[in-house]
Automatic annotation (TrEMBL):
It catalyses: hexadecanoyl-CoA + H2O = hexadecanoate + CoA + H(+); dodecanoyl-CoA + H2O = dodecanoate + CoA + H(+); octanoyl-CoA + H2O = octanoate + CoA + H(+); tetradecanoyl-CoA + H2O = tetradecanoate + CoA + H(+). Belongs to the THEM4/THEM5 thioesterase family. NCBIfam families: unchar_dom_1 (TIGR00369). This is Acyl-coenzyme A thioesterase THEM4. Gene3D superfamilies: Hotdog Thioesterase. Residues 73-147 form the Thioesterase domain. SUPFAM superfamilies: Thioesterase/thiol ester dehydrase-isomerase. Keywords: Apoptosis, Cell membrane, Cell projection, Cytoplasm, Fatty acid metabolism, Hydrolase, Lipid metabolism, Membrane, Transit peptide. It is a peripheral membrane protein.
Length: 163
């Protein structure tokens, strides 16, 4: 505990306003995750808001400096994470109880820069077999411009075999 307090003190002592905003976002994300509102830390960190139906999954995240690459646009890996998460959430909602779906392949085409206030990713099922699923997804930024499209293949496995 003392080590963590010292690290935070050292960081805040020489921090810019931008640094403090990022640190505050990280701390809020940790608190949100600990409250049990999100199943994963990444969901809390990215402030994911999910809407799931029988046919699709929509996830919205705010665009913030936490997501930026060196060009101050959304890092491609964050875009990939959003695509994979939306398709994975939908895939896992489609498998029978006691089973899970894990990504076996992820294909992405980046179309435009991730800028603006938020990104919305919508995933839909393309194929549902007994052992595999194929899904597709699109991400749009707050001005409606499409940022990326992706497809993913998912393997259906028994949860007792995970780990």
């Amino acid at each position: 505990m003392e080590n963590i307090q010292k690290q935070i003190q050292d960081i805040t002592l020489h921090a810019t306003e931008h640094d403090l905003q990022l640190l505050e976002q990280l701390l809020k994300s940790f608190q949100l995750w600990k409250s049990g509102n999100n199943t994963t830390f990444i969901s809390s960190l990215l402030q994911m808001e999910r809407k799931i139906s029988d046919d699709d999954c929509e996830i919205t995240i705010p665009i913030s400096p936490l997501l930026y690459n060196t060009l101050h646009i959304v890092h491609g890996g964050m875009t990939a994470t959003l695509l994979d998460t939306a398709m994975g959430v939908l895939a896992n909602s489609l498998v029978p109880e006691g089973y899970g779906a894990v990504t076996t392949q992820l294909n992405i085409n980046y179309i435009a820069a991730g800028i603006g206030e938020h990104m919305v990713c919508t995933a839909k099922m393309e194929h549902k077999g007994s052992k595999t699923l194929v899904l597709s997804a699109e991400i749009h930024r707050s001005d409606g411009v499409k940022i990326a499209i992706g497809t993913g293949s998912f393997l259906v496995i028994e949860k007792k075999n995970i780990g």
